[in-house]
Structures are given as structure tokens and as C-alpha cells.
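Annotated sample (chain length 194).
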Amino acid sequence: MALADLLQAIEADAAAERARADREAAAEATAIVEQARAQAAELAAELAAEPEGEARAEAERTRALARMDASAAVRSAREEAFSSLLAGIRAELAALRGAASYPELFRSLLAESRAALPAARALRVDPRDLDLAMELAGGLRVDSVLDTWGGLELAGHDGRTIRNTLEERLANAEPLLRRRFARRLARAVPAGVR
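Output written by the structure step:
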């Protein structure tokens, strides 16, 4: 399986997880907003018996607090949903070494890294990838010193390194994933809940 296919599969899984998380976050946010509105309406009715100016000010303070609480709950729910999505992606990536497509992915990562650092002298891998690395090293010294879900690190004689591990790629992709997640969530959540 090519790296692009792997990323597409991960993105498809992530989309399904995002959709589930979006639904849960939207339902929770709607419930929180409705509860806050109900509480604000109750307080507004209670305060109607008080002197009018004071009651209006108190009602407005109560509504403002309810809006702040609802906004905080929505932000918290969104962050929880994104964290859940990342946990799912991490679990899939951590299990990738056992997939039949992993050797091809390792080859792609190595080729990509060699193109970026042609003067590499050492190939660092996880001990579980040692046999595969020895087969593909092509003149590189192989050191099994990494602890990674998969991937490798190349080192040159001048001290430059290329770290091309699955963890590193996920870390680099996280800001993009967060933006895409936020856009999808914004499209899925009703305007009054945001």
C-alpha cells in the first residue's frame, strides 16, 4: 500500500471518527445551550417580580454567565472530540507495522528520506524493523536504536538528520488535522450552538 493510500485510509477513518465526534459534540452543545436558556428564562421570570431596572440588569448578567458557560462547554466538547480523533489515529498508526503494506511504506519513507539527505551514512530504526532495514539499507550503517510505531531516521556525517517516523508525520500533520476538524465541525453544528 502506497503512502498516499495509507494517508487516504487514515483520513477516511478519521472522517468517520470526526463525524461521530461532531454528532456527539453537537448534541452535547445543544443540550447545554438549551439548559442555559431554560435557566436564564426561569431567572428572568423570577426577576420580573423585582424592581424593573434591577431585574433587567440581573437577568442580563445571568444570561451573559449562561452564554459564557455554554461557550466553555462547547469548546471543551470540541477539544475532547479532537483528542478522541487523534487517539484513534494514533492507535491505527501504532498497529501499522503488522499490516502487509508496512514494508512498502517503509521503503517509501526510506526513499523519501534518502532524497532529502543523499549524503546519509546511518539508518536508525526500531529493533522490530531491523531485518527489513538490513534488506533495504543499501550501504547505510543500520542502528536499531529508535522506539517508534514505524519509520526511520537517517543521519549524515555532518550531523544532519531526517526523522521520518509515523509519530513525526502525525505531529507535523496535527495542525492541518485540527483546522480540517474545526471546519467540518463548524459546518455540522447549528449556528445557534456555536
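Annotation: The radius of gyration is 26 Å.
Annotation: The beta strands are 120-124, 141-143, 151-156, 161-165.
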